[in-house]
């Protein structure tokens, strides 16, 4: 299918396989075992691995690689006086291979693709591959435009693949970039694997920010070592700096060659003149971090004050040291500081402080959901806010629905004017990824499955012509999950991620449905009346609209909204597992939690707190509300209104990682606020009408 980006059609076609040269050294050892071991030790923000047999290569996009760029022969210096004679790798259509699809790995890959180089990204985790593929899809054009601005050149992006298999990725690579977690033994094992699997002329760079590449060579044949080096990337695309450093045996010609290639690719390489733990800038940065942590450990100041002083003194810096450490991750800060302490025998006070007070308590910064030096969500910025290089790294990607009732709607095509939209958390990079939908209302996202799911109410609400749909994260492969006629007017949809189940409220159908991701095992679990009975069908107190699932507590919740702005809305709860012998219309476990509400719509549950939107009359309507439902007994019926004055409030989603609430309304606005309703911001605003919203952590 074709997606649309800023009004332009972006075709996705299949990437041809890269050829394997005859001079690749092979081994009988499995190529995936060490990579699996590496990813089993990921930091907490990286999803755990899954068997590579559960996924196939994900081939997303191709365009001809720029021959003038990729094949241009650089001026090669006189060969070094090493036992190995330097010969530059012949690039042609050979790929760059990036090992690791995390926050930095996917950015490294996108940088090379944008500059016209074929690239393969490897990750065993299906969720990481899905997220990395999505990142490339949504950011490649931006990187390519930036490359053109920096270099003055024009080129189509290279082709890319995101795969689970190490051997297929590196077997024909001219450059391999290792971007695994900062675990030395893992890097040693991986370098041994690469020595056996990569072509003899391949250059191998480690993205390690703290380990010298000389420490990774235990299992590398001496004949290979002159092509191995550190190549430490910062944070593309905002910071294109890459620091190169010898492993102690790297030929200078290799450094010169790669330095020039990186300049052609729009990067800003810098070469350390000799081996140096921390390279160049990171040594300076380490001193700043260390003294900052010492100031905090001694109780001299606090993060906001330190950062304010830093930004006053260094006016062009986008963030202070505390905010930058939070964004990178305090566990990473601690690990790097440990390496410095071990090598230089320096005082451990700063490292002990951050390890004891933050890392050991799970407060890893922006990626942990528990905050760090700053509270959760502090690095998430809106497009109108001043942003630094590391802001929004832990922010979600937004998926939201344009119901098709906006100011510019074509009335002749009203029944198919709905759209699935996606955007960055700050409201930028907005894209329509699915069009032609019949009044879409609810949406949710599964990164593990690589799918978005949404409901269509149908061309006419009374016509029993609703449906539930799915698509890949990029909007391709649109498929019905529940076909037209099998569900009446589906509203909010919610994923039980632990059970891989979909829960859907059916308004005029007077039901709550549940099914698998492919639509199988479809069942009705609540029925509030007979939709074929005119009296029941028009009784809006029986209309089911919002849905939330608490898998750990074995409960699900739903709203029955009542007539518009009539004050007859209710919220119910029941067990996920229906008692034996009972039926959807006769359940003994249904609890009425809240009643006499203006018009409750969508639901969310987070840490024992139930949140809901209400589109009823002021002062209780058009609000965001919250109640404590964590106890074992029935709640006392009390709730708190967190925010008011929306324009027909509908969609609701909790960002648990950053402790934010995202909302949409029919007035055409996407909002973000803290969990207590404070600091409300308009993330995106148009004249359209927005219904459901979902989130995905893809950065």
UniProtKB/TrEMBL annotation:
UniProt keyword terms in alphabetical order: Oxidoreductase
SMART domains reported in the protein's UniProt record: LY
InterPro entries xref list: 3-OHacyl-CoA_DH_NAD-bd (IPR006176), 3HC_DH_C (IPR006108), 6-blade_b-propeller_TolB-like (IPR011042), 6-PGluconate_DH-like_C_sf (IPR008927), 6PGD_dom2 (IPR013328), LDLR_classB_rpt (IPR000033), NAD(P)-bd_dom_sf (IPR036291)
Region named Disordered: 44-87, 367-389
3-hydroxyacyl-CoA dehydrogenase NAD binding domain sequence ranges: 96-274
GO terms classed as biological process: fatty acid metabolic process
Domain 3-hydroxyacyl-CoA dehydrogenase C-terminal: 278-372
MF terms in GO: NAD+ binding; oxidoreductase activity, acting on the CH-OH group of donors, NAD or NADP as acceptor
Polar residues bias locations: 46-87
Pfam families, per database record: 3HCDH, 3HCDH_N
Domain of life: Eukaryota
Protein name per Swiss-Prot or TrEMBL: 3-hydroxyacyl-CoA dehydrogenase-like protein 3
Lineage per the UniProt record: Eukaryota, Fungi, Dikarya, Ascomycota, Pezizomycotina
């Amino acid at each position: 299918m074709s997606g649309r980006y800023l009004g332009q059609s972006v075709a996705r076609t299949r990437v041809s396989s890269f050829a394997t040269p005859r001079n690749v050294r092979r081994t009988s050892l499995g190529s995936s075992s060490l990579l699996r071991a590496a990813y089993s030790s990921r930091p907490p923000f990286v999803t755990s691995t899954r068997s590579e047999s559960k996924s196939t290569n994900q081939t997303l996009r191709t365009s001809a690689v720029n021959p003038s760029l990729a094949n241009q022969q650089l001026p090669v210096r006189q060969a070094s006086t090493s036992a190995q004679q330097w010969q530059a790798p012949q690039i042609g259509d050979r790929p760059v291979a990036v090992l690791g699809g995390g926050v930095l790995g996917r950015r490294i890959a996108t940088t090379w693709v944008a500059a016209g180089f074929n690239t393969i990204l490897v990750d065993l985790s299906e969720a990481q591959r899905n997220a990395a593929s999505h990142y490339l899809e949504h950011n490649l054009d931006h990187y390519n435009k930036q490359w053109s601005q920096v270099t003055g050149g024009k080129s189509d992006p290279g082709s890319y693949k995101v795969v689970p298999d190490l051997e297929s990725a590196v077997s024909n690579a001219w450059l391999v970039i290792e971007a695994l977690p900062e675990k030395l033994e893992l890097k040693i094992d991986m370098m041994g694997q690469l020595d056996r699997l990569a072509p003899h002329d391949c250059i191998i760079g480690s993205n390690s920010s703290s380990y010298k590449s000389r420490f990774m060579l235990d299992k590398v044949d001496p004949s290979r070592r002159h092509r191995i080096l550190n190549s430490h990337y910062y944070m593309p695309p905002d910071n294109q700096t890459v620091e190169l450093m010898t492993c102690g045996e790297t030929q200078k010609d290799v450094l010169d060659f790669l330095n020039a290639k990186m300049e052609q690719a729009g990067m800003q390489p810098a070469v350390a003149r000799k081996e140096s733990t921390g390279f160049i800038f990171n040594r300076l940065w380490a001193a700043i971090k260390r003294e900052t942590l010492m100031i905090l450990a001694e109780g001299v100041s606090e993060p906001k004050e330190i950062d304010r002083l830093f930004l006053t003194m260094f006016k062009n810096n986008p963030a202070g040291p505390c905010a930058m450490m939070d964004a990178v991750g305090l566990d990473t800060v601690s690990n790097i500081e440990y390496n410095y302490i071990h090598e230089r025998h320096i005082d451990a006070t700063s490292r002990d402080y951050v390890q004891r007070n933050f890392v050991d308590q799970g407060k890893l910064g922006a990626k942990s959901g528990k905050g760090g030096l700053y509270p959760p969500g502090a690095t998430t910025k809106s497009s109108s806010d001043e942003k630094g290089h590391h802001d929004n790294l832990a922010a979600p990607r937004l998926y939201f629905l344009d119901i098709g009732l906006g100011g510019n709607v074509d009335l002749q095509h009203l029944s198919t004017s709905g759209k699935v939209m996606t955007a960055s958390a700050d409201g930028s990079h907005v894209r329509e990824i699915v069009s032609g939908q019949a009044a879409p209302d609810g949406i949710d996202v599964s990164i593990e499955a690589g799918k978005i799911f949404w409901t269509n109410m149908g061309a006419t609400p009374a016509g029993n012509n609703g449906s539930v749909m799915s698509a890949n994260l990029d909007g391709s492969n649109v498929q019905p999950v529940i076909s037209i006629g099998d569900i009446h007017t589906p509203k909010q949809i919610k994923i039980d991620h632990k059970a891989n189940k979909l829960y859907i409220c059916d308004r005029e159908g007077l039901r709550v449905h549940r099914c698998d991701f492919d639509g199988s095992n479809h069942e009705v679990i609540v029925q509030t009346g007979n939709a074929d009975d005119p009296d029941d069908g028009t009784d809006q107190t029986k209309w089911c609209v919002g849905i939330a699932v608490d898998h750990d507590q074995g409960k699900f919740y739903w709203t029955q909204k009542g007539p518009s702005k009539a004050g007859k809305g209710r919220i119910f709860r029941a067990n996920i597992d229906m008692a034996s012998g009972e039926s959807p219309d006769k359940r003994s476990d249904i609890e009425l939690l809240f009643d006499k509400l203006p018009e409750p719509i969508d639901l969310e549950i987070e840490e024992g707190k139930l949140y809901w939107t209400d589109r009823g009359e002021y002062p209780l309507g058009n609000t965001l509300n919250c109640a404590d439902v964590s106890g074992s007994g029935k709640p006392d019926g009390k709730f708190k209104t967190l925010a008011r004055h929306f324009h027909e409030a509908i969609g609701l989603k909790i960002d648990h990682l950053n402790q934010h609430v995202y909302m949409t309304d029919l007035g055409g606005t996407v909002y973000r606020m803290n969990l207590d309703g404070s600091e409300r911001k308009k993330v995106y605003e148009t004249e359209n009408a927005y219904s459901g919203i979902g989130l995905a952590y893809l950065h």
